[in-house]
Amino acid sequence: LFAFQLAEMKTKLDMSERRVSELEEERHRHPPEKERLQVLGRDRLSQEMKETKVLSEVLHDMKEENKLLKQKNASMIRKQEHYECEISRLNKALKDVLQKKHQSVPGTPSEGVDKNSLEDMRTQLEVLQQQVQIYEEDFRKERSDRERLNEEKEALQKINERLQSQLNKLNSQV
User: Which domain of life is it from (predicted)?
Assistant: First the structure.
């Protein structure tokens, strides 16, 4: 859903950028002069105001999207911190189990550790190892998603700045 919305926003943005480029080219071909402004009349001025309004709306939408991306990024950072804590906890538990295992392996069941207890510890060790592996995979995925979102956010911020500049230029012309 997010990818679809992002693609839709990029399409709208591309259309707006093309229109802004057309307006910029037209402005360079016909430098603003007093006669030109009189010839344009109210219709042209109204059209430029509508285009400015559309660009303002696009800019507003991009700011909203940027805000949502920042919130999503913050959420992912919190998840990453949670995963890091969980991985540390599991690693400590794994280390404790391994230490207990090494202490009891050289001995025999006559030393106080029966075979069932040893099997239980092995099973627990396998479960913990699998949990660590799952958390590490989730952590890597969250990290890659966060990095991708940061890149998208930076790209959108650059586009946002460029559109804001173009909008200011158009506003100053109107």
Answer: Eukaryota
